[in-house]
Structures are given as structure tokens and as C-alpha cells.
Amino acid sequence: MKIRLRLFASLQKWIPENPVEAEVPEGITLRDFLRDQGIPEASVAICIRNGDKLAGLDAPLIDGDYLELFPLIGGG
Prior knowledge:
Elements: E1 2-7, E2 20-23, H1 30-37, E3 44-49, E4 53-54, E5 66-71
Parallel strand pairs: 1-5
Antiparallel strand pairs: 1-2, 3-4, 3-5
């Protein structure tokens, strides 16, 4: 199955070509996908799924998902 992924801000260093389409096996979770891509899950603060829903790391991915990942943002 295929998903689309877009990384924002400091997360882009793991997959610079944004957005990217990826083939993933059925039943894979977002946590599994991050691990497979070498993206530390602690670096991901927010995941928006298909433009309007927050997704947890243990959410199983579905064919056609569009995921937008955002890091923690600091400021002062």
C-alpha cells in the first residue's frame, strides 16, 4: 500500500525530499514506519493524518494516508 509523507522543520533532515510517497506493508503503524526510516519517534510532536485528524504513533496506516509530521518547537 502507498502513503504520502511530509516532514516539517527539523524533521526534514531525515527525508529531505518532501513530500515523499512510500510503499509500506499492510498493518504497519506510524511508530514502525518512523523506525524503518530512522526517524526518532521522540522528535515527532504532532502527526496530522489526511489533513484533519491527529494520529498517534500506534495508529495503523491505511492505503492512501497523507501524513504531516511536525517536531517540537521551542521558543522564548
